[in-house]
Amino acid sequence: MEQSPEPVYALAYGAHPDDVELSCGATLLNIMNEGKSVAVCDLTRGEMGTHGTPETRKQEAATATLLMGYQSRTTLDLGDSKLFHTEENIAEIIKVIRKFRPTVVFANPPDERHPDHIKASKLVTEACYYAGLQQLTTTINGTAQVPHRPKHLLYYTQFKHLEPDIIVDISTTFEASRKGVLAFGTQFFKEGRAEEPKTLIKRREFLTGLEARARYLGEQIGTLYGEGFKLSGTLGISSFTKVF
Ligand SMILES: [Zn+2]
Which residue in 58, 100, 140, 164 has the most C-beta neighbors within 10 A? Predict the structure, then answer.
């Protein structure tokens, strides 16, 4: 892992490959359309998934990265269905934060259906804080990393309802974000494919449900589509009139 020469604006973490695309892909496209850089980090290879193999999921993640236009994608191997709360795992996440030095971090929400999402949320939340500590040292290829604490941490919406603090208007990027989602083809229902074990996201109606949520969130702010986020802290503003 080399130190990134330029800091990225946003770093989006997911417990599994596809978490980021399913939950905040359109917002990431908004950010990149405004000329800012985005990096993604999957905490696991998704090797415990009912569908697909680590190899196919790796290929799918590479395709999604290309279609979405991220600056980079890092895949850690912290153990699908494990993701234990250990010093070593937190250190691996800190290394990625210090490498990319983001202003904004996106993470899985703290209250979720899949236990890995809850664990990922806790790990990333702690790593964001600890990454700023001078006395906590990490090295890459023998070189000490510079401490860095991201300014903002936002939790995206997954299966469980999350009362958002902010809703981003994604009307212009929703369609394009679907390409990133559909890159993970092994995970979704496909007409004519042989009978496979049913999972929640493998149902024919899953992608329609995803669109319905984006439509619902858009309605809350008077736009076609929206993505909702919870802030980890209180948002401070320096200019009242730039926000309101
Ligand atoms: Zn997941």
Answer: 100
Whether residue 234 contacts residue 225, with contact meaning beta carbons closer than 8 Å, is answered with no
State in Å: Cα 142 to ligand 1 middle: 33
In a domain, 5, yes or no: no
CATH number of 116's domain: 3.40.50.10320
CA of 134 to the centre of ligand 1 (A): 32
Note whether residue 2 is domain-resident: no
Q: 225 alpha carbon to ligand 1 midpoint, in Å?
A: 22
Query: Is 108 domain-assigned?
Result: yes
Residue range 134-182, pLDDT digits in tens: 999 999 999 999 999 999 999 999 999 999 999 999 999 999 999 999 9
Residues by chain with Cβ below 5 Å of ion ligand 1: 15-16, 19
1 inside domain:
no
Measure 221 CA to ligand 1 centroid, in angstroms.
Answer: 27
Rounded Cα distance between 185 and 45, Å, is: 16
Structurally, the chain folds into a number of domains equal to 1
pTM above 0.90, yes or no: yes
Name the DSSP letter for residue 219.
H
> Could you tell me the distance, in angstroms and rounded to a whole number, from the CA of residue 173 to the centre of ligand 1?
22
Give the range of the structural domain holding residue 123, as residue numbers without chain letter. Answer: 10-243
144 CA distance to ligand 1 middle (Å): 32
How far does residue 114's CA lie from ligand 1's centre (Å)? 7
